[in-house]
Design a protein that fits this description.
The structure is a single chain. The protein is an alpha/beta fold and about 220 residues long. The protein has a single domain, classed as Uracil-DNA glycosylase-like domain (Uracil-DNA Glycosylase, subunit E, 3-Layer(aba) Sandwich), CATH 3.40.470. The chain is built from 8 helices and 5 strands. The protein starts with a helix and ends with a helix.
């Protein structure tokens, strides 16, 4: 379990409260986006004091071309986010929305693997062997309150290549943490994952919001 001290250290409450409409924008902390990747992939949006870090399997080619996460118009991420209460008002997908989430809502973004592909089937074991330990180090360095994995494939491969394989993976909050971060797994919003409807995704995102709000209230 997270201690009160760990939670207080992890969450940028000013950014969280502003996202809920309690503080003016000027009160929020400003930090530089982590631009450690090449221009052939998406940059990481990471810093200390984040409430949530969104973790995809790997960048899609449409997202890399557009320059922001979940850019495929058929991807349900933005619609589910807007319907979940994680943000106080709907966002238009794009670079400005990314900046808003990062700076005002304390929500960051990264991936298990940073190599872009046309689909998850194109990833190799070597990609996870390289990417998962790097992601673990990033999460330990930034210390978000919640590490939010999109899809069991993303989280299972993260566990497999960071020494945590064998743990059961269910939807929602997990029994184990990564560093000081709680782990929450939701279905991949990709259009290829048609088993889960938009309403299903909204329901899981609302559960994520509830966890964020409960943990933030501890501080």
């Amino acid at each position: 379990m997270l201690t009160l001290k760990a939670v207080a250290r992890a969450v940028d409450l000013r950014a969280f409260m502003n996202c809920a409409g309690s503080l003016p924008v000027a009160a929020c902390s400003r930090s530089t986006i982590s631009l450690t990747m090449s221009q052939e992939t998406l940059p990481d949006y990471l810093r200390s004091g984040l409430a949530i870090v969104s973790i995809g399997l790997n960048p899609s080619l449409p997202s890399v071309r557009a320059g922001f996460y979940f850019a495929n118009p058929r991807n349900r991420f933005w619609r589910a986010l807007n319907g979940s209460g994680l943000v106080p008002e709907p966002l238009v997908p794009g670079a400005a929305a990314m900046t808003h989430l990062f700076e005002e809502c304390a929500i960051g973004f990264t991936d298990v693997v940073k190599r872009p592909t046309s689909g998850g089937k194109d990833l190799r074991a070597a990609d996870f062997r390289e990417g998962a330990p790097l992601l673990k180090a990033k999460l330990e360095d930034s210390g978000p309150l919640i590490a939010w994995f999109h899809g069991k494939q993303a989280y299972t491969n993260y566990l497999r290549y960071t020494g945590g394989s064998g743990y059961p993976v269910a939807w929602g909050e997990q029994d184990i943490q990564t560093g000081t971060s709680r782990v929450f797994v939701t279905p991949n919003p990709s259009p290829a994952n048609a088993v889960f409807s938009l309403a299903d995704l909204v329901g899981y995102y609302r559960r994520l919001k509830d966890l964020r709000d409960r943990l933030a209230a501890i501080c």
